[in-house]
Write a structure and sequence with these properties.
Helix content of chain A: 40-55%
Oligomer: homodimer
Largest sheet of chain A: 6 strands, antiparallel
CATH topology of the largest domain in chain A: Beta-Lactamase
Structural class of chain A: alpha+beta
Distance between the termini of chain A: 32 Å
Chain lengths: 252, 252
DNA sequence: TCCGCGCATTCCGTTCACCGAAACGGGGGG
DNA sequence: CCCCCCGTTTCGGTGAACGGAATGCGCGGA
């Protein structure tokens, strides 16, 4: 949001944005400070947001994101809309492997995790439904980047690429080659590129116009499987989901 | 929202609320009409919401709920926060049965579905993640109502109760008895009360202070199982989730 | 072809919704 | 007692927000 004079809408949105996974509940003063609005303004806007249900205020006086906001947000076609279509296929993939299954979409230069199914014994992963991550390291991220518009690819490669582990590929030229291989192979592999103990294989999901709109991946413990063995599974799930997203009356 | 003069925040929220499962995408005029704001106002506010990501405008000029809103809303403790905790148990329940698994919370006089896992061959159910439903007919609804504050129960029973099928219990006295049985038994059964072909068994999930904060259910095709056989499964899942919600450092 | 309708976008004079500094009261700690 | 932080309320000033009107566009029907 711009500095100085800000619209009411901008302030309200800034207040919603003040909540993060690290700060899921906030006092009024914290909320005002994080949103960059004065205390009385935060107080007034918060009262409205609470009355509507976008925020909830607990007995402790602290604010949290409210269920009503989530209800409305659940209508986002690229969020739960996509997830609803994909869910049966994600379930199948999970059931066969009992490993992490992830569904993600690209948002600008990042990915957003739309769904994640993980059993209790699956390898821990640094992802959260609704959370964002870089494109260049994860399996789903690589798929989304490989199929993104060229401008997006070049933009992503022009920025400094964070090295999550010694195996993360941060050299733009190497990454370009990798992205070309992803497009050629029809799947991406991320081996120890996010955490050293995790291997993920991801495949592209195509939407109504055959453009890649999301990616699905399996994340397993490194050294427990070969990517080649996992790829057909993941690709089958991706193809199934793509089929469901294909054009038809009232389609997505 | 009040009539006549309305705050900016109220108008913005009314615009978000204009989207429904039946109308997930709207033209500007439709959005303005549904939200009860003038066209220029809707145009201005929509532009801000789109810039921030709460709404997305497609090439067709139509507006949809945006991914950014969902990202923020994913932080709702009673939404995906609860779902994250419950997911492994829901998965277990799904895997044993391959039937519909549902997770819901109470919001006023209605329930909101927080999660739903359904295989491709499960009985069709009238539920949608993020959607609302009455309390008096579904398994999860009965559990939530049975454990709701007395004022809520009396309020719900005082309203006209919709009969989804001839088997739906709409008589307040009969419903009171049923709710008492739910509390006694530790689970609820809804047999043909929502759709004639569906039987659901639900159990309460308790939060940090042992109060019932959610309910989990299994929905199967009627006449394919006995509630008594399903109840222990559902209750085990509910107990597992409750355990994860129990007080502990940084707990939910 | 012309006309009517609905749509989306922009303009502009008016006004009241919104603002934040300040005040107030409460709680906790030294 | 003083200090600090918090949350809530007050109130005069003002500019952000408003909507009717105008404009231009596309579409369908006569």
């Amino acid at each position: 949001m711009g500095e100085g004079a800000r619209s009411v809408t901008a302030k309200v949105l800034a207040m919603l944005e003040a909540f993060t996974p690290a700060t899921p509940d906030l006092s009024l003063s914290e909320l005002a400070r994080r949103a960059g609005v004065s205390l009385p303004t935060a107080h007034r806007r918060a009262a409205e947001l609470v009355a509507w249900g976008a925020l909830e205020r607990g007995a402790d006086g602290r604010y949290r994101i409210g269920l009503r906001l989530w209800e409305v947000a659940a209508l986002a076609p690229r969020g739960l809309g996509l997830r609803d279509v994909a869910m049966p296929f994600l379930e199948d993939l999970y059931e066969v492997t009992h490993e992490n299954v992830q569904l993600a979409v690209r948002e600008g230069l990042e990915l957003v995790f739309v769904e994640r199914i993980a059993g209790r014994h699956a390898v821990p992963v640094l992802t959260r439904v609704g959370g964002r991550f870089a494109l260049h390291a994860t399996g789903v991220g690589l798929v989304l980047l490989a199929h993104a518009p060229v401008e997006v690819q070049e933009q992503a490669l022009a920025a400094p690429l964070h090295a999550y582990t010694p195996k993360t590929i941060t050299d733009p030229d190497r990454l370009r080659e990798l992205l070309a291989a992803v497009r050629r192979n029809g799947y991406a592999v991320s081996d120890g590129q996010v955490t050293l103990d995790a291997l993920s294989v991801a495949a592209p999901i195509r939407g109504a116009d055959a453009a890649v709109v999301a990616a699905v991946s399996l994340v397993v413990r490194a050294d427990t499987a070969e990517p080649i063995a996992l790829a057909p599974l993941v690709q089958a799930a991706a193809r199934g989901i793509s089929r469901m997203l294909a054009p038809r009356p009232g389609g997505w």
